[in-house]
Structure formats: C-alpha cells, structure tokens
Write a structure and sequence with these properties.
2 copies of one chain form a homodimer.
Chain A (H helix, E strand, L loop, with lengths): L3 E7 L2 E14 L4 E6 L4 E12 L4 E6 L1
Parallel strand pairs in A: 1-5
Antiparallel strand pairs in A: 1-2, 2-3, 3-4, 4-5
C-alpha cells in the first residue's frame, strides 16, 4: 500500500498527525483535509511543507 | 513503488505534468517543486488541489 504518514511541525520537531493517509486536499480557506485509508479524517489549519511518496512521508506546517 | 502521477488542470481537463513523482514541495513564493524518482524536476506556479496516494494521483491547479 502506498499510504503515507503525516507529521506536523511543532516546537521545532515533527509530531505524528495521522497514519495511513490516502487523501490530502488543501482547501481554499487555508485548511488541509487528510483522510486515512480507514476513513479517519482530520481537517486543520496548515499547509503542506514537503512530501516524499517513496518515503511515505508528508510534513505539514501550522498556519 | 509508491510514486504518483502528477496532473495539472488546464482548460477544464487534466494534463499529464510529470510521471513517477516522489517529492512534492510547495514553495513560499507560490511555486511547487516536483521531483520524479528519476531526478527529473519541474517547478511551476501552481498549488496542490488534491491527491490520493492510494490511487497514485496528484492534481495541481495553475496559479
């Protein structure tokens, strides 16, 4: 499977935000919607900082 | 492998932008940098509209 793990940068470090992420959708209002392969959804004020699909990593930053 | 195919929305349809994408990095200046597993790089003025890692699809919109 090709889902990724999403992390968010907090206090200079990366914290786990959501595992097994399938869908990533930045919204027009500055929110990002993440949905895992299990249907778990998180919507938060953040932006995508970087991602590597080969490494299964998505890194978000707040705001 | 878990790379994805990147498309860009143009004239209401999706055009192939870059295949076998590994790295996706939105930049602070409104550009997005894509790098394929073969090292091919594209930088363009766009934003991520949606992606599904399970479906290996990344869709960008211009501007």
């Amino acid at each position: 499977m090709c889902e990724a793990t999403a992390y968010i940068i907090k206090n200079g470090g990366e914290e786990l935000l959501l595992a097994d992420v399938d869908v990533i959708e930045p919204q027009d209002d500055g929110m990002v919607r993440l949905v895992s392969i299990y249907g778990e959804q998180k919507v938060l004020k953040a932006h995508i900082k970087s991602m590597s699909l080969v490494n299964h990593r998505v890194v978000l930053a707040q705001g």
